[in-house]
Every structure is written in C-alpha cells, then in structure tokens.
Please model this.
Amino acid sequence: MKNKFDLIVIGAGSAGTSVARSCAAEGWKVGIVEELKYGGTCMLRGCDPKKMFLAVTEGIDAIERMSDKGLTTIEPTVNWKKMSEFKNSFIEPMPERVENSLKRLGIEEFHGKARFNDDGSLQVGDDVLESEYFHIATGASPIQLGIEGEEHVKTSTDFLDLNNTPERIVFIGGGFISFEFAQISKRGGADQVTILQRGEKVLNQFDADLVDMQVEKSREMGIDIQLNSVIQKIEKKEHEYTITYNSPNGLSHVVCDLIIHGAGRGANIQDLNLEAINVATTRKGVVVNEFQRSISNPKVFSAGDAADTSKPNLTPVAGIEAKIVAKNLIAKEDKYKTTYPAIPSVVYTLPPIAKVGLTEKDVEQRKDEVKVKFKKTHQWYSSVRVNEKYSAFKTIVDKKTNKILGAHLLGPGAEEQVNVITMAINQGLTVEELKAIVFAYPSYSSDIKYMFD
Ligand SMILES: Cc1cc2nc3c(=O)[nH]c(=O)nc-3n(C[C@H](O)[C@H](O)[C@H](O)COP(=O)(O)OP(=O)(O)OC[C@H]3O[C@@H](n4cnc5c(N)ncnc54)[C@H](O)[C@@H]3O)c2cc1C
Ligand SMILES: NC(=O)c1ccc[n+]([C@@H]2O[C@H](COP(=O)([O-])OP(=O)(O)OC[C@H]3O[C@@H](n4cnc5c(N)ncnc54)[C@H](O)[C@@H]3O)[C@@H](O)[C@H]2O)c1
Model:
C-alpha cells in the first residue's frame, strides 16, 4: 500500500514524538514509525524505569546510613521481582498512552522497522511511505565491542527486564550505565559486582575529584572496579561466563552469570539505508547543520541520539533539538538555530554526582581568570543529617564578571541543587544575585550560597 505524507518521523521517543505532535497540530499529514513499543528509550528502557529501581534501593541506602542513628530495622532486602513489577506498573501503560495521544492529533502510526528504498520511499513491512520531509529520530544502541564472545553480552534493557537478583554480574565500561546499575545490583542483593573499565578513569565527563570519591564509595559498597582492563575474550561454560582481560596485574579472569554492556552507545542509523536518500552520516549519527537539517539532503532532519551534534546523548538535549526541527519544518525555512543553554547531567548513583557547565579541565588554560572552589561537605548539616560521608562540590566562577561557569556536585540533593545552579547560569546571574535568592531552610538548595565566595 502506498501512502503520501507531509512528514514521516522515524522513531517514537523523545526526539520523535514531539516533532510529530507539533507538525500535526499545524494541520500537517504526519506519519510516525516505531519498531518497538511507542515511547522510546528514556520512558521505557532508560531514565524512568531505572529511577524506579533506584527508588527501591534508596531504602537500602537510607537504612545503611541511619542504622546506628536510631533507625532499627530487620535486615532489609530487595525483592527484585516486586521491584520489577513496581517498575512495570509505570512503564506498561505508557505505550498505549503515547499512541492514543498521537492518534488524537490525527497522526498515523506504523509499527515496524523502517528502511529507505532506493527510490527514496520508506518501507515499513508491506507499507511504502512517501513524504515531503523525513525526521530521523531513531536514537542509539550499544556499540559493537569487537571482543571474542561478545554475543554473550546483554544490554541495559535486558538488565531492566530482570525478574530476579543477578548473583554475579560484570559491567563492561565505567560510564553512566555501569555505575548506576552496579549500585542497584549491589543494593539489590547481588553477591559479586564488577566493573571492567578499559581506561584509567571512569565517568570521564565528570569532575575527577568527585569521581574519585564516588569510586571510593562504590568500592566500599563491595563493587569491584578494575581500571586499565582490556577484555580479551568471553567464554561460556554451561550457565556461567569467564571474561579474560589484560590488567596492570597481568592476564586476569572474572567468572559471572551475567554480563551487561555499559561501554557506550552509537546512533541507530546503520539499517536505514540512508545512502539511498543521500544523507551524510558519521559514526555519531546524521550530520546536521545548526538548523537540525541534514547537510546533504534538505528534506531530512534529525535530532536526539541519532543526530551527530556536539552534545551528549541526554533526554533534555533530544528535547531542545527536536523543538528546533519542528520550528524549522513549520516555518518551511531555516529560521531557527539550535542553541544549547547550560545542560545539567546527573549520574544516578547514591549519592548522585552532578555537573553543569565547564569542568576544571576545560579552564586549565585560563587558571588566572577563574576562581575554583573545591570542598568536602560531609561535615555540613545537610550531609550530617543523613549521615552521608561522601559529599563535596567544586564550583568555577569567572573572576571578572563573577558569573558561574561550572558546578560539580556529589552528595545528597545534588540532582536538585544542580538544577538551581543551571537556572542561575542560564539566567546569567552573578554570584551575588544567586546568593540573594532566599531558599527554605534547612534544604539542599539553601546550601548553594555557601558553595560560592
Ligand atoms: C539505560 C539508560 C539510562 C538513561 N538514563 C538517562 C537519564 O537518566 N537522563 C537522561 O537525560 N538521559 C538518559 N539516557 C539517555 C536518554 O534515554 C536518551 O538520550 C534519549 O532517550 C534519546 O531520545 P531519542 O528520541 O533520540 O531516542 P530514543 O528514545 O531511543 O527513540 C528512538 C526510537 O527509534 C526507534 N527506532 C530505531 N530505529 C528504527 C527503525 N529503523 N525503524 C523504526 N523505529 C526505529 C527505537 O526503537 C526507539 O524507540 C539513558 C539511556 C539509557 C540507555
Ligand atoms: N544518568 C544519565 O543521564 C544516563 C544514564 C545512562 C546512560 N546515559 C546515556 O547513555 C550513554 C551510554 O551510556 P554508557 O554507560 O554505555 O556509556 P558511557 O559513554 O557513559 O561510558 C562508556 C565507558 O565505557 C568505556 N569502554 C568503552 N569500550 C570499552 C571496552 N571494550 N571495555 C571496557 N571499557 C570500555 C569507555 O572508556 C567509557 O568510560 C551515555 O553516554 C549517556 O549519554 C545517560
């Protein structure tokens, strides 16, 4: 069957659905294609389900911190199956809700894997779709590792689908996924949790001093973090796996029941046959200009994890880019440029580690022009109150303007404090102006003023 549209969106996640909605609201004939359930990674396989797991394990963390401070409990444990049911109670109704909200706007939905035909039409199962414009919002998936036995490696989605506590689990890579999920595993009752990181540093985008503290905390919890570990091969014997890796101690092995990929994600564009519509790509995705339009085919736009932009693959970034796609499509010209405000980022460990703006490394070349303040805050009231040993901040301020250039936070409340500081940065507030804001006391936000001189 042949169908003709004004716009076809490929991918029903954060970067796709909002563009479909905006154009449909303008009276466009819009189609959207999704090969999995409608809703995308963040809602169904990423941010949201992960934080439901986190909510349960926060209980374990709180009990551990407060057990000799008056909180008496019987040995707390996580019932993984129930935790999984709790998570499913949130995500299961979502695809239908997303589909209904799209249908209400008259958007036609297609279920299946999209691939361009050589004549420029889009094939989805038996449907052939033609369109004036295409928006590629296909997201990202785990990169190939090029390791012997990599077929045994499972994904973050598999982890979120587990119904039972993993007993011996190894995470490949020392980034967001590995740290968040390793802590969930450990607090969830796993006996042996290992992170194998290829380089000498983990959580590379975050402040090194705070990361060192997070590593110490994770090791104290019993997570084995192996640095400079280059995996040679993965072998399966009956129900267990042996990973052989080169480490500073020589050839080493770890035996486990489950291996999870946390070694980075790359754009989902390989199977789209983008050559057929002359769309230039790199390893990082569709090459777009500052209007989110393909540099080689003006009828194609892209945003989110599928687009090769300079920004990290995060949900707020997908949202910013998608908004620009919709505005330029509706304007029918390149009218709106993508500009990124300061974007906060959080690793949802306990305690969380957060960042916004420049790092100390970014300002290395202009040390005389900036004020860097680093302080451990375990003795501050907010950390004492919840008995958190691991808490600290580093702030970077421009000496001349007294405006905030960057903030790095570890500790209880970091994920919310970073939002307040992001607001200050994006509003161009000086330190004095930020300090003049009144916050409820005692609260994590009320600590912010003491992070700046
Ligand atoms: C485990 C995990 C945790 C995360 N946690 C956070 C977090 O806490 N905070 C944060 O900001 N970010 C987080 N992220 C990143 C965030 O989820 C992504 O940046 C965001 O979802 C990207 O949105 P998107 O619309 O570009 O892609 P997606 O949401 O991935 O949507 C793309 C959709 O396209 C579909 N698709 C792909 N190819 C085709 C095809 N050929 N045909 C049809 N459909 C196709 C896919 O099935 C998918 O549903 C996390 C990611 C993961 C994996
Ligand atoms: N809280 C959040 O915002 C959040 C959470 C999860 C995922 N995400 C998004 O998803 C992306 C993917 O997450 P991720 O954790 O997979 O990647 P990541 O980019 O955060 O970290 C990957 C790490 O794996 C290491 N690595 C790569 N290949 C390796 C190998 N063969 N052996 C050992 N180590 C190896 C890298 O050096 C790097 O440190 C993130 O970059 C982020 O954009 C965000």
The longest strand covers residues 127-136.
